[in-house]
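pasting for ref
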Amino acid sequence: GMLIGSIILVLVAVVSMKIVPVYIDNATIKKNLVAVASDNSLQNANAGQIRLAFTKRAQVDGIRVVSAKDINILRDKEKLILSVAYTVEVPLISNISLKFDFDVTSD
């Protein structure tokens, strides 16, 4: 009984260690999209300037899952809305992987 409980605990711990960074990256991407979209100096900027601002923030935070070219830029009533859809695949064991689909927006 104790051995099976230990095995289950180890499996849960290993899976958690693989999943948690994916959600941390997602939260960081969301934070950066919100920061760029709410930056007053970028409200009238062109797409290149907006992407450059995201790239700088992404480099500081170590985001490698998405790049500036993946970002969709929309202006809605003078408000800047940034979004990105991406997929992350995390290998678990041998040929078993977990796939995460995210659709993040700045609003």
